[in-house]
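hiii, so i know i said id send this last week but things got crazy w the move. better late than never?? heres the sequnce for the chain we talked about at the cafe, plus the structure i predicted for it. fair warning i was half asleep when i ran it
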Amino acid sequence: MLRLIPWFLLGCGVLSSCAKLHLGKPPKPAISANAFGGGGIPPQLRAKGASTATPTGTAATPAVAANITPDSEIVFTDPDNPEAKLPELATLLAAPQRGPWEESETIAKQRAAREGKPLLIWFTDSARSPLCKALADELFSTPAFEKWASEKLIRLRIDAKIQDTNPNLSLDEKETRLADIRSYVARMTKTYKALGCPSVFLLNPSGEVIGRYRGYKRGQAAYFWGQLKHGEEVSATAYKSWRAGLENKGYREWHDRQQHKVFAKPTSYSNGILLLIEPDGTRSRTHESKLCDEDRAWLKQRLTN
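okay and structure toks below
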């Protein structure tokens, strides 16, 4: 019996060695020659259960359908008089746009929700990052991208280069303004976990992140743009489904005489005053005379039926 023990221990050692040979780290899968993988879909937009291999500089995030704020969660300033001091619809829709890239997250998200477009957020450091400059020169500043993005996206730029060129500010006001900008950039960086520049995020009109694109390589503008196009298509499909569901609940697109538009549900009408509520709970009022002819005809038909 004692003679068998050494042989038994030797056998265990061999099995242990074999186990180590088979339990080592598996080899990394090779990246497909197709820029978006075998299925033609970028990794961050694949459904759960699909391949999760990601190309350099990207992170996987599944697409998420847009949400709506339930009526039960909408809180008014004055519960006893919810129509008091409602903003004019024309005032809400006529907010000035400062340029192709917004600077305020609040304004950018409002525009994305009202126009039904995805929101692209670009974290950049225009003063110190050569790759940020390369991304700007090779893609974001090109006429072709500008034309496409103007039609398909709302854009927000968060620049680590802190500056304020307003000449009308006093020295104290300028220092306060710069401190506010630093705080804003830090908060946005933490909120979206933007690790380094450039980092680009694509959000649904309701604010859910559907794509994360970290880093950039020179000469890959077409590849990067292709990922953004796929993200926009996925978002547009989700938005159509979400919008169709809301249309069945009484929401529709309204236009004023300047062709500003808003997707909202009428909540009441009296003496020409129409009250509207948007999917995110924003309420406004307008006089029917300020609506386009089509909307006035639609309203008249409903009132006479």
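btw Residues 92 and 284 are 8 Å apart (CA to CA). thought thatd interest u
miss u guys!!
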